Here is the input.
Amino acid sequence: MGSGVAPYVLLLPAAAVIAAVLAYPLYFMVRLSFEHYGLFQLIRHKGEWIGTRNYAQIFHDGTFWHVVARTLAFTAAAVTLTMVLGTLIALLLARLHPWIRLMLTAGLIFVWATPVVVAAAIWKWMVDFEFGVMNWLLTWLHLGNFDHHDWFVNPWSGWGVITALVVWGAIPFVAITVYAGLTQVPRDLVEAASIDGARGWQVFKDVTVPLLMPVFVILISLSIIWDFQVFTQVWVMLDQNPGPNYTVMSIYAYQNAFGQSEYGLGSAIALVMVATLLVVSIFLIRQMVKARDEA
Amino acid sequence: MRPGRLGRFGLNALGVAVFLVMIFPVYWMVSTAFKPGRDLFANTPEWFPYHPTLSNFADAIHRANFWDAVMNSVIIATVVVALSLILALLAALALAKFDFYGRGGIIVLIIAVQMIPLTALIIPLSVVLAKAHQVDKLSGVIVTYLAFVLPFIIWTLRGFMLGIPRDLEEASMVDGTTRFGAFVRILLPLVGPGLVATSIFAFIQAWNEYIMAYVLLRDPDKQTLTLWLASFSTTRGTAWGPLMAGATLTALPVVIFFVAVQRRIAFNLTAGAVRG
Here is the structure.
């Protein structure tokens, strides 16, 4: 079909919205990160250029490196758990009686559909130190005395709860997507491998995984993007005021920008976050593509 | 690789166990919402609401700003769905049915844009929207969500349009319809399933979003349901019964829409990926 101006006119409205709300703020974030932008500048709508001072401040700030390490550790743990458990559930789904498969799928969909803020509220209630069902259950199972146990006093157990919440919410998408992929793996390939003497794990490793690699690449990169910028779950679980042990990069950027009114500093942190995410995802995706080509 | 009868029974039992663990939090929310206070605070948990009551729901609904929040969430979600569908339909049409200079670049951009961690954008976006006098206004949140959902919707609708054979359109044009006529008569009905799926995607995104709304909407009667829910615990402690009732009400529309459409979304994602 001919071109002319028609396609440009059709694209214009969507492009304008994306430019105004995504592209321009992205540029503005880069500029802000080189500026001192406090309350005074906010009122005047004009920042004060200070070069790389925001970055110098972040990189010499011990807290910042702790925050980065915490964010990376959480992301690694959450993504690994999500992918492993999600894939295991997908493999399980493929082997279930149709009725039980339907029941489990329906359960997964309910979890998937639960809004993040709602999920955080539920988990907060389940681990409530006074009347939470978790403390009762663990005490009843004789795993220790959890009466009035506050999970968030110790950051390790607090992060355990947050990771459980995030992974629980993320499993359905992974499980259902991998299961949908599994149903498309040609039967004869699996059977051929079995005739050649391959056993369960080997078939999975040598036939299923390479075939599903594109699906895994998408799921892993999406999971990294989502978990690396985790905010809402931590924020709501810790009553919108997470302490220093619960600061991840998104929260650190938020607290600097809106808590301290240091918008320039906050932008610099956010930009480092974007850059880190970019480097991590490119590295991982290249590794996965390489692994597939070698296989 | 055929498990024996015992193995099969074991797998199915495991399936039921996984189901129970996954669904428990959702069950616990709903059952808490129907329990009277004395059952909530029992020393041994009541596993089932034996004395069901609606008082938690009544309490939640009569809390300050509940109906404001419902109204705001409904307005925001509806406008985002309507506008995003119109804008995305036009853009997808351009990308699927026209050859023009820069098309390849735009398609790459649409994929790349979805990789931006949106949490990082809050700071610059809030400053930009403050400059444009969009703080404490639903329009600021609406335009933000619009940009968040557009790339995915354009991408999905383009996929649907690519699947429609060109002959169909040409045949209808030979029959004397104009290009616009062909669009309305041929393309629109065929893209229908895509419109349903993407509109529900937009609805859920707009309904569930928390951070942007938290930053932009500070005025209590401008807040959305997720904000209302997140600010439930007060200094006097948390009212768990009403909170779970409020959570149930917040989740309900999403669950209904989601269950209606999820099969299609998950299938599309993998269908394209495995083939490609």
Remarks:
- Chain B touches chain A through 93 residues (CB under 8 Å).
- The CA atoms of residues 57 and 249 of chain B lie 8 Å apart.
